[in-house]
Specification:
With 231 residues, this protein is of the alpha/beta class. It has one domain (9-230): Rossmann fold (3-Layer(aba) Sandwich), CATH 3.40.50. It has five helices and 13 strands. It has helices at residues 21-30, 85-93, 103-110, 166-174, 217-230, and strands spanning 9-14, 34-39, 50-53, 62-64, 71-73, 98-101, 117-119, 127-135, 150-157, 161-163, 178-182, 194-198, 204-207. It has a nine-stranded mixed β-sheet with strand order 2-1-3-6-13-12-11-8-9, sandwiched between helices. Strand 1, helix 1 and strand 2 form a beta-alpha-beta unit.
Length: 231
């Protein structure tokens, strides 16, 4: 579904316990776009210019074997069982642009829509701060005007360590699928300082830092706008 002019229609997937949903909604509305929430039980086709899985803690990042106090931390695991995953997979097959931020990135990786794994931070602690990130590869949503630029982007995660084998990393870099790297201290120990990757088709983007909270948010938004307008 193509955008009309610069106003995009954005569907923001909302799971129980999501806590960055309004940040994401405000991000798009601030730049004049029409953004709305899509509840996790939705089963109808997603008719949007862009689908966003926001950050937060979908289902509390907890996986219960039974309805007891015993659980394990497994970000995105319960989200995969949600009805909304079927429309998301359908949209992915149709080439609809999809963006996963933080927890949304974790869900897309677990769903097999993006390569790699996201593991607990090496320090085994939750990390929340502003970090420097550099645009590399095909850049964020293929915007070459920001390629090589270093931006300030907030991070807030406990399971943000992107992990692939050395061979897989080499393939991702050769394909230019890595679009964002930590340019300063690595907050989680991710392989090759990787902070964001996209699929081979360049339609699904996953990013661990939060562009919607960034003081450099305009660069991320302009990239999205240009990408959607061109496709």
């Amino acid at each position: 579904m193509k955008a009309t002019g610069k106003k995009l229609k954005v569907g923001i997937i909302r799971f129980p316990a999501s806590n960055c949903d309004f940040d994401t909604l405000n991000f798009f509305q601030r730049f004049g776009h029409h953004a709305e929430f899509v509840w996790y039980k939705e089963t109808k086709p997603l008719r949007y210019n862009l689908i966003v899985l926001p950050g937060g803690f979908a289902f509390g990042d907890r996986l219960y074997a039974k309805a007891t106090r015993t659980y394990q931390i497994d970000p995105g695991a319960l989200a995969l069982r949600s009805p909304i995953l079927r429309p998301i997979r359908r949209a992915a097959k149709e080439g609809v642009p999809i963006l996963g931020i933080c927890n949304g990135f974790q869900i897309l990786v677990k769903a097999g829509l993006l390569p790699g794994k996201l593991l607990q931070n090496k320090a085994k602690k939750f990390f929340c701060d502003n970090v420097k990130c550099k645009l590399v590869g095909n850049s964020f949503f293929e915007d070459k005007t920001i390629l090589g630029k270093t931006l300030t982007v907030p991070v807030a995660h406990g399971y943000g360590r992107y992990s692939v084998s050395k061979r897989e990393e080499k393939t991702l870099v050769q394909n230019k699928q890595v679009f964002l790297k930590y340019a300063g201290p690595n907050p989680n120990g991710s392989t090759g300082n990787i902070a964001g990757v996209h699929n081979k088709e360049k339609t699904i983007f996953g990013i661990m830092p939060h562009p919607e909270r960034s003081p450099d948010a305009r660069y991320f938004m302009r990239a999205i706008e240009k990408y959607v307008e061109a496709n």
